[in-house]
Amino acid sequence: MKSEIKSYLKLLSKYLHGQKMKVLLLSLVLICGIILQLINPQIVRSFIDTALNNDNYSLLTKMAILYVSLAIIQQLLSLVTTYLAQKVGWSATNSLREDLVEHCLHLDMDFYKGKRPGELIEIIDGDVNILFNFFSRMGIVLVSNSILLIGVLLMYFREDFRIGIAQVIFSAIAFWALMKFKNIGTKYWKENRRITTKIFGFVGESISNTEDVKGNGAKDYVMHRLHKLQKEWLPSRKKSSVAGWSMFMVMLALQAIGFAISFIIGTYLWKRNVVSIGTIYLFFNYANYLVRPIDAIQRQLQDMQSAGASISRIEELLLRESIVRDSKSNLIIDKNPHLTVDNITFGYEKDEEILKNISFKIEDSKNIGLLGRTGSGKTTLARLLIRFYDVNSGEIRLGNHNIKDISLQELRSKVAYVTQEVQLFNGTIRDNLTFYNEAISDDLIYEAIREIGLQEWFDKFPKGLDTVLGTNGVGLSAGEAQLLAFIRVLLKNPYMIILDEVSSRLDPETERQLQNTIIKLLQGRIGIIIAHRTWTINFVDEIMILENGKILEYGKREELESDIDSQFYNLLKTGLQEEAVV
Ligand SMILES: Nc1ncnc2c1ncn2[C@@H]1O[C@H](COP(=O)(O)OP(=O)(O)OP(=O)(O)O)[C@@H](O)[C@H]1O
């Protein structure tokens, strides 16, 4: 509990830090509202007693005007409260949401392996939304309602100690009863959240894989699974809704008991001439204010519980660190570097060796073609070069620096990795090329387009850079999406480019056209081209063939081409894709 409170306070101080004045104003407005709630019944009491005892119309009118004015002020205060609470809550949750998204974008591949996008959205949006109340008013409402509750009880004591004692006992019982019922509700609510997260995860995954789901005729299976999940959801939803309604009924019943106590004791005291008729009304009115703060306090406590679950999920996410550690150094990669891979070994899991004792060196501006059977470790090697994962042993150096000593920002600005899965956003071609970086001018983009000989192709978009693309490049062919990916890369002006089977989904004709672009793209840079078809790498300087995570063959392309004993020679002879996998 102590550590929970500590983490609540940490979160509050972090996200409410810049809003101190607003929070102060909000507290003030809430306290003024409470004072008015305590004063108003007193006016009504005086009104009733005055009306019963004399005909002082002018006094009665003044009281009525005062009552109405205070009631209006009370409404205005609640308007201001809502406005301020929204402002404070939204600012805090928006900053938290931004922090979470930024954090997720920094996390490495290992984190994403076990996570579905929908589940992450449930935390970044669902849990953060739950914290809205926590940020905007939870603490304030807890304190102000406690003050209201104590204030009402003191008012009872002020009138007569007997009603005071009775209402204190009643409040304690009401608090206990509400707590009991809310605990039952919380159990169902938690279960409900668990299933919601599962459903969102599944729906997110299914939608992002629409093409494959449709292409494989798996729609019915997906719908069946969703149906099963929803079936699980329904009973838990029903239980939590019923628990919610039972809560409401209990509250109404308690309110009725509070009224009854006020009437019974009020009448008893009135018969003994201890209190007036107006005071009985006062008792009745305060009884209304008795259950409400108890309920509000309970509600906040319950919200705190659900906020607690959300906070712990958010904290867990924020505490999650990448296995790949970023270097804090300011090292800048030397221009025209060479790449040295020195005896590296790597496995995704412990005690697993996907790559074994790999060593090679690529001089500046040289290109290497990487071949090998499916699963031989080509993509894994590429991922290590851009530090999506870190090697288990050995060293990768770019220029004179171990890539672990270079910051990820610097490394990934100088090394580009392009796969066949080009990810495009719903936005203009410009946004897709620059990743919303406004510092990249249109002139620079056009220069890049010209540099890799795509001017003619690009001219066919009548709206040019303003052409709007659908999500995942809807409106473009796979080859065109690939061309955009190349322009993106060129805008980075990297020293090294890794192309991972970029053209394997394309037809041979498009692939041939793409090849010219690739050659231009790699000019003056280190190039690593992972390929399945040998003719797509007929321009590279060196060839490396992997098998079962080891180098099977490595040498100059021209030499291997003419060596009839080489694997590469055999591949070229057959020239077939199947054969390219040794
Ligand atoms: N993220 C991952 N987590 C665990 N194992 C992985 C992961 N990615 C790949 N592997 C495993 O590592 C091995 C090498 O895979 P890799 O993708 O590097 O092969 P590849 O040569 O690029 O194959 P392909 O030609 O089919 O792309 C495979 O056995 C694969 O199952």
From TrEMBL:
Superkingdom in the source lineage: Bacteria
Location of this chain's protein in the cell: Cell membrane
Transmembrane spans: 21-44, 64-85, 139-157, 163-181, 242-268, 274-291
Pfam family, one: ABC_membrane
Sequence ranges assigned to domain ABC transmembrane type-1 in this UniProt record: 24-306
Membrane topology of this protein: Multi-pass membrane protein
Domain ABC transporter, first and last residues per copy: 339-573
GO CC annotations on file: plasma membrane
SUPFAM superfamilies found in the cross-reference section: ABC transporter transmembrane region, P-loop containing nucleoside triphosphate hydrolases
Gene Ontology molecular function, alphabetical: ABC-type oligopeptide transporter activity; ATP binding; ATP hydrolysis activity; cysteine-type peptidase activity
The entry's keywords: ATP-binding, Cell membrane, Hydrolase, Membrane, Nucleotide-binding, Protease, Thiol protease, Transmembrane, Transmembrane helix, Transport
Name of the protein: ATP-binding cassette, subfamily C
Organism encoding this protein: Proteiniborus ethanoligenes
Organism lineage: Bacteria, Bacillati, Bacillota, Clostridia, Eubacteriales
